[in-house]
Structures are given as C-alpha cells and as structure tokens.
Design goal:
There is one protein chain. Helix 2 packs across helix 3 and helix 5 crosses helix 9. The chain is 46% helix and 16% strand. With 210 residues, it is α/β, with parallel strands linked by helices. The longest helix is centred in the middle third of the chain and has 17 residues. The chain has a 5-stranded mixed sheet with strand order 4-5-6-7-8. Strands 1-3-2 form a 3-stranded antiparallel sheet.
Length: 210
C-alpha cells in the first residue's frame, strides 16, 4: 500500500537533492522535525515506499540518504545518481552543518540559500568554474566556503580573489587545527577585506546542541 506524500516529504527530497546527499540528523534540522525519532520514522516510510535509499560508506559515519530513481522521476530531476565521493564525505557533512548553523543561529531561511550544485546548474555545463559551497542571497550576496584541507595555495588564493570580485562578503569556515589555512586568510584580508573567518569546531559544537 502506498503513502500519501505531504509537503514535508517534498521538502525532504528537495534538500537531499540539492546537497546531493544528507545524514538523517541533517534532515531533522533542515526540515524542523521535533525530534530524531519522528524524523527517522518518516525517513523509513519514504525508504519503504521507494523514494529514498540509505547506505553506509565509511566506518563511524552514519548512513547516507539519497534519492532513488522513483523520486527523481517524480520530481522531474536528472536520473543520474549523485556520486558519493569518499574523500569528500567529511567535507560535505561540515558544509551541511554550516548550513544548519546559519539556519538556526542567524535565522537564515533555506530559500535564501543556494548550494554549489544549484550554482553549477545555473552556470550550465559549458561554463564550469569554481563555485563556493553555498551562498546566501539576501540584502547582500554572501558566499560560504568550508576549507578543511589546503590542496594548492595558488588555487586557494585565486578562489579568494574570485569571491572578492563576485560577492559582497566571503565567509570561510576552517578547523582550529588548520593554522596554515587561517594564516593565508588573515594575510589575504589586506587585499580582500570582505573576508570573515569562523571556526568549524564551534559550528559543529553548536549544531550538536540542536
């Protein structure tokens, strides 16, 4: 027997799609469930009816939720499944934690937020370029970047410069332990004064309390 989908179910699927995948605790906060049990029950109903799937990828990380072909067809989305890249799992979790931090601490509405995936879709495939992890569109355009591992200093500086040219403010979320990243950002403030730096540790500690 099928279920009757309600507005909240569509919101769940929309959030999972635009972030490519989520953890259950992210859905609880993004959608505003009263508790983990009620969220888990609804997610299980959606799984049992073929709209969602979940899978373990890394030991110690909870199961990851994604859309199925059934839900993609229903929502008129690209049927190609979003890849779960193992090397990006911790980064993507940190990005979603940061979204929730803005949502709860600063009362940012989710419809004011655009994800990296949405920004690339907006650009089109012929114009593939660096995009921030997400942006907030309000009175000012703000880009948010979660930087956990410095891969290339030159590319890092280029991204800072590009963000300065395109956005009113660029907010960088960095682990306390990554002093090199923080130092480059502090030095870059001289030339690119729209930079703000926040602690990923503090962001994730706040999200745990929700």
């Amino acid at each position: 027997m099928g279920i009757r989908l309600v507005d909240r179910d569509y919101r769940i699927m929309k959030e999972i799609d635009r972030w490519r995948w989520t953890l259950g605790r992210h859905i609880k906060c993004l959608i505003g469930f009263s508790g983990s049990r009620s969220c888990d029950r609804r997610l299980k109903v959606l799984i049992d009816n073929g709209f969602l799937e979940r899978k373990h990828y890394i030991y110690g990380v909870p199961q990851i939720y994604q859309l199925t072909n059934k839900s993609r067809k229903m929502l008129n989305l690209n049927l190609k499944k979003d890849a779960v890249k193992l090397e990006l799992i911790m980064h993507n979790i940190a990005v979603l934690d940061t979204v929730i931090w803005f949502q709860y601490k600063y009362n940012v509405l989710l419809d004011k937020i655009k994800s990296e995936k949405e920004l690339h879709k907006q650009d089109g495939f012929s114009n593939r370029k660096h995009r921030p992890d997400f942006i907030i569109i309000d009175n000012k355009n703000i880009c948010i970047e979660v930087e956990m591992n410095l891969k290339s200093k030159d590319r890092f500086i280029k991204n800072i410069k590009d963000n300065f040219m395109e956005y009113d403010k660029q907010i960088w979320i960095v682990p306390n332990s990554k002093r090199k990243i923080r130092n480059i950002l502090e030095e870059s403030k001289i030339m690119y004064p729209n930079i703000e730096i926040y602690s990923l540790d503090e962001v994730q500690e706040y999200v745990k309390s929700i």
